[in-house]
Amino acid sequence: MVVLGFLPCHLSSFHPPTTAESPKSNGLRSTVYASSDLPKRVLIRRRESIVVASSSILAALLPVGPTSNPSFQNAKAEEDEFQRDEERVVQIFQGTSPSVVFIKDIQIVDPRKRTGQIDVDEDENTRVEGTGSGFLWDKTGHIVTNYHVVDKLATDTRGVQRCKVFLIDANGNTFSKEGKLVGSDPAYDLAVLKVDVEGNKLKPAVIGTSRDLRVGQSCFAIGNPYGYEHTLTTGVVSGLGREIPSPNGRAIRGAIQTDAAINAGTGASSGVNFAIPIDTVVRTVPYLIVYGTSVSNRF
User: Fold this and answer.
1) How far apart are the C-alpha atoms of 202 and 288, rounded to whole Å?
2) Would you say residue 158 has pLDDT above 60?
């Protein structure tokens, strides 16, 4: 299975598709993926490790002999396994990327020049203040991201902050829409945006579970570091049950630790990164969509 989780960074995450029914995800069929960045990026775990090994070099150094030679057969089987692993990683990336979105945090420099029509065009009267990642939650246009990616929009009292979301349609074409904030929970570094797009243009992420993660499993992060759309990095789940600070200062418990390279929008990756477990995301997001806040803030 794969677990889609989140990091207080700019990324989201995933793993080889296993189908599961998510209890609070509007009945959507889901697959398990592991995520982080939130960049948030997307982490994916697999039973087999991805070995970017020099299998072709290995084969080239082996003596050429009849196919019945056990050494030759073992080398060929090993090379085939490397190729299968590589192909699985390619398929994971190609299948997941359309569900990952690129987010720009935009500020209107001079509100007096603003027209009656609200848009997110980038011109001399706007300034890009940050970028991040998120993933498509459903076909109605809800997007899950980290709170720290949209904190300026969430705390805007002057009406000068905008969110521009870049998506991929069913034909592989990139387009952009304004993202409206519908809910946020700084305590878990989570937020939900909404874009107005026809449902057949969107490919929601396949959601799984994080409860059966194990240290040592492979994970993959797909995000948009430094504005480079859809970048893939790899690593392993290096720790479970970690405690990390949230944007409002409270502790987030049960975080996933990974060494997959993730950029949090503040510089290079430190080599130690954390993700919010997808099980926490699945419990929280429905409340953010319906009430604008999490259940922990309502009661």
Assistant:
1) 20
2) yes
